[in-house]
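Here we describe the complex-level prediction in full. Unlike the single-chain runs in Section 2.1, the two entities below were treated as one system.
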Amino acid sequence: DTGVSQDPRHKITKRGQNVTFRCDPISEHNRLYWYRQTLGQGPEFLTYFQNEAQLEKSRLLSDRFSAERPKGSFSTLEIQRTEQGDSAMYLCASSLSDKNIQYFGAGTRLSVL
Amino acid sequence: AQTVTQSQPEMSVQEAETVTLSCTYDTSESDYYLFWYKQPPSRQMILVIRQEAYKQQNATENRFSVNFQKAAKSFSLKISDSQLGDAAMYFCAYRRSQGGSEKLVFGKGTKLTVNP
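The structure predicted for the assembly as a whole is:
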């Protein structure tokens, strides 16, 4: 078990472009979470899945953001028409349904120029 | 809405000494979980310690222990015998235990420096 894996680790893009991030949770973890962390702040919740069902979305998740977990395994987070304010670290975490400990990946750092 | 406050943006400690990081939270719930996570520079966040609100006994994990004061809504982390590897950002986090929402609510963090 290699833990939660996120790809890419770093992404630099120009304003207006679309970007997609991938998260592979710990195997057999059926819950998967996305958080966003800006400089000097703690992580802020974006959304979470139980298996393939997206059960909760934060108001931070604007219409330009979409997350999927099509087969209940890996997940993708897409940001359309990126803005400079989207620059942040995007963290993924996973947990077992009968546990409440969330295990985090190393994150994807997005820089929008 | 639940909030978590860490009033110490930065702390420093001498190697082998003891340091305490503060955390307060606001909630109307009676049952919940509290966590301390450690985030080393450019590395992933890892769980340090967890406390269940219905348990009166303070959680301990080796050199790490908490002082959980439910009535005061306080949840401080004590690191004993500090080591250079303890240097990191430390985040306090809250999670409801019932009602469906599983999101973690984090404080802004405390940057801990360990001096040799």
